[in-house]
Amino acid sequence: MPRPRVCVLRAPGTNCDVETAFAFERVGADAERVHLFRLLEQPERLKGFQILCIPGGFSYGDDVGAGVIFGSQLRGRLGEAIHEYLQADKLALGICNGFQVLMKAGILPGGSSAWPPSGGCPEATLTWNDNGRYTARWVHLETAGSSSMFLRGIDSIELPIAHGEGKVVPRDADVLQAWSDNQQIALCYSQPVTQELATAGARRTRAELTTTLGWPHNPNGSTANIAGLCDPTGRVLGLMPHPERFQFATQHPQWTRRGLSGPDEGAGLKLFRNAVEYFG
Amino acid sequence: MLWEVEIRPVGVDRDGLRVLQQCRDFGAQSISAVKTARSFLIEGDLDQAAITRVASGLLTDAVVETAEIRDLARKDDRAGATLNVLFKPGVTDNVAESVKHALIAANHSVTAVRTCHKFWFPADAAKAEVERIATRVLANDAIQQVVWGNLHLTTLAMGSDYTFQRIVLPLRAMDDAALMKTSREGQLSLTLAEMHTIQQHFQEQQRDPTDIELETIAQTWSEHCSHKTLRGRVRYRDEQREHTFNNLLKETIFAATVEIRNKLGADDWCVSVFEDNAGVVKFDDKQHVCFKVETHNHPSAIEPYGGANTGLGGVIRDPLGTGLGARPICNTDIFCFAPPDTAAASLPPGVLHPRAVMQGVVSGVRDYGNRMGIPTVNGSILFDKRYLGNPLVFCGNVAMIPVDKIQKAAQPGDYIVALGGRTGRDGIHGATFSSVELTHESEHLSGGAVQIGNAITEKMLMDVLLQARDLGLYTAVTDCGAGGFSSAVGEMGAETGAHVRLELAPLKYAGLSYTEIWISEAQERMVLSVSPQKWEEFHALCASEGVEATVLGEFTNTGRLELSYKGTPVGELSMHFLHEGRPPVVRDAFYLPPAHVQHPADPSLTADAILKKILGSLNVCSKEWVIRQYDHEVQAGSVVKPLVGVAEDGPSDAAVIRPDLTSQRGVVISCGMNPRFGDLDPYWMAASAIDEAVRNCVAVGADPARIAILDNFCWGYTDRPETLGSLVRAALACREIAIAFGTPFISGKDSLNNEFSYLDADEKKHTVAIPASLLISALGQMDDVRLAVTMDLKTAGNHLLLVGNTLEELGGSHYEFVTGASGGHVPQVDAEHAPKIFTAVHAAIRDGLVRASHDLSEGGLAAALAEMCFAGGLGAEVSLTDLSAQTSLSATALLFSESNTRFVLEVEPSKLDALRKIFNGLPLADLGTVTDSTRLRIVNGGQTEIEAEIAELKTAWQQPLAWE
Lengths: 280, 964
Hints:
The complex is a heterodimer. Chain A is of the alpha/beta class. Chain A contains ten helices and eleven strands. Chain A has a nine-stranded mixed sheet. Chain A is globular, with a radius of gyration of 18 Å. The interface between A and B is large, with 59 and 62 residues.
């Protein structure tokens, strides 16, 4: 299998690029950490990659709003290159600040169908957590039957969040309905999977999953518990939780209780493997 | 054009609700609602259409916000109920800078941007309360200004042209009074003896000094930079002995390290100690590990957010400036505050409310550490009313450095290069300011010493610095900390000489004098030496990531520091005089044990109630509100987190992280501190702090043969012999215990004169000195992180064992604190036994015999068992009967004594024999078993001492700081 090439795109203030590139490398990709300034100088460089990943951090300090300035750069000088990239059969992943960048740029939730953005009020935003502050904790997540390539084979997963502005707010109810219809709701904050549900091999329905939960299960007050959104093609995914922070078993907060230190792989690595296998 | 873009939330106004809560916290009951907005003041060649595009396309989140645009030059006569809070000119405004750069990048013609926060209060709110909230809560006079009504401005331009004028001070002709006046009015903090030495030096030179020369000497000789008290001569006397130290630090702390290294011989694992900006020890074949902990107390007292923010930013630059630069892997922070429930009306003038101080400090550390992408993994918060007006903020950073990047030396001919942020008027006189006592006027006098950091600037600097290091593009590096360029260049060029052309420094704004450029403590700057051959490549690398690098001059072989401005020499000093010329400080130190005050405990309290009071005391209670605001997992090396257990909320003893993702080798970080013991005996306080730091480290799995420690002394006014005496006593314990434990000190720092003075209503002076506060930080290592152990109980049916000897040591304990008792014996350390116990605990963990382990500290055995139960969501059935028979101690002592070197271990029944074999002869007592009940029950003989629901214990522990 050829090793797909990953562009881990970093801007001033990006800080999860090293471990995110490391996760891609572990599952058989060639990951290159590319500075945004290099791409702004030569937008055509983007053509050489199959996976575009915008990792977590505080691009431009989150000044003005998380992901806003980085997002505006993608819309500006890189608009044409992004257009071409989204048209191709390639993948894009935004983690935490990367998700915020994809949203503020207008790449999500519409993907190629909505690019370039019209300039009116966007479909949705990521705004301040209900508690008004940066919050780091592990959450339970369930997939909601989306078309996302990254989440294939994943029903539920535990991952950490670490953000201040992670609350998904759609413009109106129609937008939310459209996401549901187009299978764009990729990942929802949930309660731990109950024993009964697990033994019955059953899953919560999308309606159950999107009935907004209280704190701490839904850590930021996100509408319909949404933790991740994909575009209608399933090739672009943005999520607030950090899969690269569960690429080793020992990153789990309860590994000493659950005997997880055996095979040194965390469940989050699956997202990266799915991306690589898409090109297999 | 000068525009204002005012952005208001649609729907819920979260900032408004937050401010309303603050109004209630501060007793402003008449304020029933608060509305807020953020606004941007933008000056440039933008027409209405352009500013509208900027407002909607960049500044406003249209889904949740709405914007209004105003021309600020037009007079606006609407009602004047708006409160505007703006940064004072020259204060770092990160958001404004980012907006300016983004607009310029998008081809807008913009000359200046400022941000503003706006607030509206209901008409029926009491005017006095609104004024108080405005000036005490919403704006801090040290950095912000308040404007009522609508803003009416014509320009944001600031700074003015600087007219060069070389200033010479007629020092040679001055009498003592004039010398001291010069020192005081120039905020130089130089003593008369030092002024005499300087005067004599210039008499020999047959000239008078320039202002910049005097400033350079003041910065270099400041307590903050030279630690003259602790490195000076001390005549010490206590109840047993008299001794004169020629160099207190050298003969106590350093001496311990020297002795340990000699003992280790060829196995010495220290690399660089007390030399560079951080201590360095061996980690593996490829990398060494560095650790540094600094304080930023005085700036944090005046502006908690900025003080803590730049405190962390500053300590991160220490490892970056160690060797040729180390890569930061985690932060630690320890804070000391007055209780957050202190009545607002009881505050002396000039003191910020401790709750506001705590919120500001936590936010400052959060915003810097999180943005840098460095996990904050360990810390502690201690409360004592004596920290009112003088909080303590300790920030630490651990970093990795390749084994071949330790050596550095600036070469004659190398360029002196400034890297990173620009120079402004910020932080002028920080080094000398942090060396003097705070007064209620400090807030006004010292505003210039307060700064706000820009973490992204430092992150960008770090990114290019580490790349340039690996490419071998420079020969030496150091950070710009206290004293700014003066200290950094002075230090780097100490062996060679240096010539600096001050007009070359890039400035934030015009108008700085040559002296201000030289001593500015603007943040996020490093100084490097770059050979002319490498300069082009170095400069190109920096430019490629948007980092400014500027040549300021060159290192020379003259042995002199030469300063010029636009070709005119403004200063020339011999490096020798600068670094060796300071007259030795000689101080007296005297220690007398405090009088023993015997007071019984409140007899109405049951052991149950005492346990809950201890768990709910501020020092012991959960710090989850703080911890969850810190990113503790970035870099993907997290192994043992600060919160552990079945609900991920139990108090971990130490943090374990894996700095190299391709290896299982781990770094372990912990700390120890207990000022309450210091009130009884600073010697045993220091011994206990070392023991606590080491046992926390060992509890999770660190190898006690590889633990390095750091000291941070924060003391009161050490010119007072009794204050210095208590410090000497603590230093003596540091020496004894470090040697006994084989734990070398590798770095340290002191912050003296931590006192706060104010005048009461009758103009009477009061002084509050902090308690003697010694922080010990420990840096441990473990071969395989997969053997780490956490403190939460794991499985019902497992055995619980107590390791270590319990003695009647309730002095300074939390038992005494919550029951009102006093007079107990302060916990001591058995220097002979303790290392053996640590070795045995480590062996048991390494052999996989331990399912949970927890150190015993505040609250003793009872508190440790309670924490283990609620962290694990399991009960325990414990009997003290045997222990009581063996020790003939009371149940109170067994439950609550805070004797050192003790652990509780959870062990599977099948592993008990193997464990006992390891502990052969060392104190190990059966306590009982883990149960799947919901209760912790502790019996003694026929008597039930404690029987409590785990959930109630947990609530008691979580409730005090469970802030919204």
